[in-house]
Amino acid sequence: MNKLLIANFSRMKKDMVCKISLLFTILYAILTIVAGWRSMEINDVQIPIDSLFLNSFGVSGFVALPGIVMAAFCSMFIGTEFSDGTMRNKLIVGHRRREIYFTNFLTCALSGIFFNLVYLALVSLIGIPLFGGFQLETGTLLLLMTDGMLAIIAYAAIFNMLTMILQNKTICVCLALITVMASMFLCFYLMKRLEGPPMVEVYQMVNGQTTTETVPNKQYVAGSMRKIFQFIIDFLPSGQSLQLSGQSAVHLKLMPLYSAVIILVTNAFGMFLFGRKDIR
């Protein structure tokens, strides 16, 4: 398996998708710092470095950016092995399917972590002199980073599974992007539903005068449905990314467990199907 991993990393040095992903990460880090500095100057407010740091896992709670990057990178990098015949050659020379599958998963996961670390390093080196040190406690910051990294690994497990099963690079890229976008919009919608207040003010006209009345919010999510919504947000990597980047996560200690479940289940299911698949 070591030879397969070394071969993948050697290919990454020349791979255009890897270079574009790395360049995008660097530009995103620089733009985040510039935007934060400009906002601080215009609004005359102090922006903590913590918020810029956590944007590595998403764009301020609005876009699960790591998922989009991982969807494109994993699908195209692994998909190339099928389109170029590399996958078939690996099997011909005697590599076991489980080794090939797990090596590709490790390649995607380590690449995602590397891209993220590049962002974190740039924001720390450039941002700390401009915005000051971290305000979050060290333990909390490490827990947030652990959650974010595991979410990225969960993304890698999902997209590697899709690519290894479907084989067609174009279909994999489209399906991976659709998956991450759909899950992101779903989690964003559920988060907005949970933010709704239990009571709202209603304006009425009485005898020509405007009056207000506080009434129950019909759209308010309560009871078991509220727990279900929160579970979906906490479980999906996109929901984790949105919460981490928006600093709104409420179950930081549970999210790593959910990511671990996704990683184990998708890898086991993917290996099972790939082991029985006819490689063209």
Automatic annotation (TrEMBL):
**Can you quote a single GO CC term?**
plasma membrane
Keywords noted in UniProt? Membrane, Transmembrane, Transmembrane helix
Task: Please tell me whether the keyword Transmembrane helix is annotated for this protein.
Answer: yes
- Segments spanning the bilayer are 20-37, 57-79, 100-128, 140-159, 171-191, 255-274
Indicate whether Membrane appears among the record's keywords: yes
Q: Which domain of life is it from?
A: Bacteria
Protein name per its UniProtKB record = Uncharacterized protein
Organism name: Emergencia timonensis
What's the source species' lineage? Bacteria, Bacillati, Bacillota, Clostridia, Peptostreptococcales
